[in-house]
Structures are given as structure tokens and as C-alpha cells.
TrEMBL record:
One of its GO terms (biological process) is cholesterol metabolic process. Its EC number is 1.14.19.21. Its cofactor is Fe cation. Residues 13-116 form the Rieske domain. Belongs to the cholesterol 7-desaturase family. This is cholesterol 7-desaturase. It catalyses: cholesterol + NADPH + O2 + H(+) = 7-dehydrocholesterol + NADP(+) + 2 H2O; cholesterol + NADH + O2 + H(+) = 7-dehydrocholesterol + NAD(+) + 2 H2O. GO terms for cellular component: cytoplasm; membrane. PROSITE patterns: RIESKE (PS51296). GO terms for molecular function: 2 iron, 2 sulfur cluster binding; cholesterol 7-desaturase [NAD(P)H] activity; metal ion binding; monooxygenase activity. It is found in: Membrane.
Length: 342
């Protein structure tokens, strides 16, 4: 294992919890980006993510803080803080402390996940977190799918960018996931902070097939480095979300979610269909675990020894990734072209 040379403080949307981990009235303690944080849900259902320490005398609000309507009360001296992190009540004074503010983070809640916008320069969000249904613009919704199946691997020694690079890495599918032939990419669009990668892939048949004859594939949308959503076609209907969030300078929490499509028509045995879907979801998760096994022991190679067929994809994704490193520690994508093996 090796500490990633890439910054562990990239900009973007990152998952910090699942929605059902933070019910109404709950205060949830967590650590991301080397900061102690809390997420709490008000009576009206609004989730706030903020720094964990009370600006009065520094109590950790995740240990005994309580939700009162739309505000959070500190367990130490009862000061109350609103969803903007402003102090709204000191119970033994006439006036709140208007000057002090607890840092809050922009929050998006979708696909049963809580995402925060992280930016060390405190810039406003400059793209949207992708939605595993709406972002594909095909009219699909959660109702068309069985409930989300999940994987959670906390504290792995890896960087979010490893996961995204997997998306241009056609050569790993055969070795890590056992595909009979190499997939081919049909779209690499890395112009904007939200990028698109489509590829033709099959998990079936033998190595005598030609990829040109294959009628199945995956479309992926990368919302920055933190969240990627995929949609499959021509195979069992599935959608996935991978969400990798840095915890500290060495480790990240890995979350992966899969949705399997419900049968389009009435089926004779709905329970059997559900069990089959669950098994298929478990198989998709197993494949993601195969990647985790590599990532969590990998040393990030920069510049890598690329084959010429890999040059374009890796150059595109590493250049794109630079957008998310305000501190400039994004590696040296420009060196790639010079060092590729021919
Ligand atoms: S430390 Fe929070 S109210 Fe005093
Ligand atoms: Fe993979």
C-alpha cells in the first residue's frame, strides 16, 4: 500500500452518509476530509452538514447534540445553531451571538444518499451531483427498480481518482472481472466537470467473439471525482452508483450501490424474480469488490507506462481530473504523452 500522491482534498460532491442513517431528529457524527463533521435532520426533513464543534467552547455536537424543530442544540450549555450554522439562541442571554458561525456544507440528497460539496476554497458548487436515474434523461425512476443493494468499505487506503480511471481502463476487465474479450469505448467526453464514458462490453460467450458484434454496454456519468453513476443496456437492466470520499490523508470510504430493474411485464412468480434480482445485484457488487482488492493495494503510478492504445483515455481523464485539485496536487497528466510506451 502507498499513500496516494494525489491531493486528498479534491473539490466536488462526495457522499457522507446514506439518507436512512440520518432520520428526523438524528445527529450523525462522521469524519471526512480530515474534519470532524456532523449531519443532522430537522423536523421538516432538511439535512444539514456542518463542522462538528460548537463555536462556544468547543463541544462536539455529534455527542449529545439534540434537534429542536429546525435548530440544533449543543449538549454543553444549550446554545442553538440553525441550518446556516448561525447561533440563534443563548438560553441565558437576551441575544444570540450573531458573529460566530459554524461552517456548513452545501448538501444534495438524492438516490438515498447524502452528498456534500467540498471545496477548500469555499467556492459555490459549479456542477450538479449526478442522479442515477434523471441524469440519463430516459424517463426512468426508482419505481422501475428493486430496492438499492449496497456495499460499504470504510477506511481503504486509496484515492477517488483510482475508481474513475477504471472507467477508461479497457484492459483490466478481462483480468479483474473475467470478461471474455476486451471492451471498446464508444464515448470519452471530458470537456466539463461532469464527464461521460460509454463502452461496449459483454460478460458472456468466449474469446472467439468480435467486440464489433456485441450488443450490450455501459454508459457512465462521472460527477467530478466523488460520484459515478452507470446504466447498462443489452444485459440485465442495472444501474450503479460508486461514491468514494476521502477520510484523511491516506484513506477513503467506499460506497457502492446497485439497482436491478423490475420486470417490465407481469411475471408469474414475483418472489422468484425478486430473489433473482437480488442475486444479480450481489454479483455486480462482487465485481466491484474485485476492483477494490486492486485499488486498496495499488501504488498510484505517475507517470504510468502506458500502451499506446491506453494513451488517449488516460491522458483525457487525468487532464480532466486536474479541474478538481485547487491546491494543484493533481499529478502530472502532461507528462503522459511524453512517457507512453510505443
Ligand atoms: S460548547 Fe456548545 S454551548 Fe457551550
Ligand atoms: Fe473494474
Amino acid at each position: 500500500m502507498a499513500k496516494p500522491p494525489l491531493s486528498m482534498k479534491p473539490t466536488g460532491w462526495f457522499q457522507v452518509a446514506w439518507s436512512d442513517e440520518v432520520g428526523v431528529g438524528d445527529v450523525h457524527a462522521m469524519k471526512y476530509f480530515d474534519q470532524e463533521l456532523i449531519a443532522w435532520r430537522s423536523e421538516s426533513g432538511q439535512v444539514t452538514v456542518m463542522d462538528a464543534y460548537c463555536e462556544h467552547l468547543g463541544a462536539h455536537l455529534g455527542y449529545g447534540g439534540t434537534v429542536h424543530g429546525e435548530v440544533l442544540q449543543c449538549p454543553f450549555h444549550g446554545w442553538q445553531w440553525n441550518q446556516q450554522g448561525r447561533n440563534v439562541c443563548i438560553p441565558y442571554e437576551n441575544r444570540p451571538n450573531r458573529g460566530r458561525r459554524i461552517k456548513t456544507y452545501p448538501v444534495t440528497e438524492r438516490n438515498a444518499s447524502i452528498y456534500i460539496w467540498h471545496d477548500i476554497d469555499d467556492r459555490e458548487p459549479f456542477f450538479d451531483a449526478p442522479d442515477v436515474f434523471a441524469s440519463f434523461g430516459d424517463g426512468s425512476s426508482e419505481a422501475d427498480y428493486y430496492p438499492q443493494q449496497r456495499l460499504f468499505e470504510p477506511g481503504r487506503e486509496m484515492h477517488p481518482q483510482y475508481v474513475l480511471e477504471n472507467g477508461v481502463d479497457f484492459a483490466h476487465f478481462k483480468y479483474v472481472h473475467g470478461t471474455p474479450i476486451n471492451p471498446i469505448f464508444t464515448r470519452h467526453d471530458f470537456d466539463d466537470p461532469v464527464s461521460y464514458v460509454d463502452f461496449t462490453i459483454t460478460f458472456e460467450g468466449d474469446d472467439g467473439q468480435r467486440i464489433e458484434d456485441i450488443n450490450s454496454g455501459v454508459e457512465a456519468i462521472n460527477g467530478g471525482l466523488g460520484i459515478a453513476v452507470t446504466k447498462s443496456w443489452g444485459m440485465i437492466d442495472n444501474r450503479t452508483i460508486s461514491a468514494i470520499t476521502p477520510v484523511d490523508e491516506r484513506t477513503s470510504d467506499i460506497r457502492f450501490m446497485v439497482y436491478i430493474g423490475r420486470p417490465k411485464a407481469q411475471v408469474r412468480n414475483p418472489e422468484r424474480a425478486r430473489v433473482k434480482a437480488e442475486e444479480f445485484g450481489a454479483e455486480v457488487i462482487r465485481q466491484f469488490r474485485q476492483d477494490i482488492h486492486i485499488w486498496s493495494h495499488q501504488r498510484y503510478s505517475d507517470p504510468p507506462a502506458l500502451a499506446s492504445s491506453e494513451l488517449e483515455g488516460f491522458t483525457a481523464i487525468r487532464n480532466w481530473a486536474l479541474k478538481f485539485y485547487p491546491d494543484g496536487k493533481g499529478g502530472s497528466a502532461a507528462d503522459l504523452a511524453a512517457r507512453a510506451t510505443h
